[in-house]
Amino acid sequence: MTPFLEKFSRKYHLPIPACEALLGRMERCEYRKGECIVRQGERNGDFYLVSRGVWLGHYLHEGNDISLWFAGEGEAIFSTRSYVDDRPSSITIEAMCDAELYALPRRELELFFGESVEAANFGRRLFEVQFLDLENWLLAAGGAPRAEERYRALMEENPELLRVVPLKHIASYLWITPQSLSRIRARLHRRKP
After folding, report:
1. Contact at 8 Å (CB) between 47 and 104?
2. Which residue pairs, CB below 8 angstroms and at least 24 apart, start in 155-161?
3. Lesser CB count within 10 Å: N end or C end of the chain?
4. pTM score > 0.70 for this model?
5. What is the pLDDT of residues 10-60, one digit of tens each?
């Protein structure tokens, strides 16, 4: 059992045999740093499972690059707008380092969901997790908890981000400026024994 599949199983509450069945339908793909599975304004309703690397979901708004989420090993990624509504994506999904994904076209994932109650429940949980992550991000962006606490929590959950993600994207995700993030990092570094 690969570590990314174990993480996927835990996060989305899909038993290992069902994870393996899903993975058996998927195509392994490799990406280089900076490559995208979809760009803002393009369509791609495919479903992806991250087996290696870190991905960023972001978009441009009035000239500002806004970071929405990061995804790493064992997490699902896809353009919700393209998947659900077959419309152009509102975000770009970009590799922050060399990465590996497993891909499945939407129609194949829908067939998988229809094969059993367990698979259908996975589909429901997949979107529940997406909604919960969105709500958590929106609540954090509203100012509580403080930026330093949000930064600490992010680094505890995803320590590899600092190695592969430019600080401007981490700052954007935290809803602060890169300068504020630098001050937070310097303050935390000074506190270390």
Report:
1. yes
2. 158/54, 158/70, 158/72, 160/54, 160/72, 161/54, 161/70
3. C
4. yes
5. 988 889 998 999 999 999 999 999 999 999 999 999 999 999 999 999 999
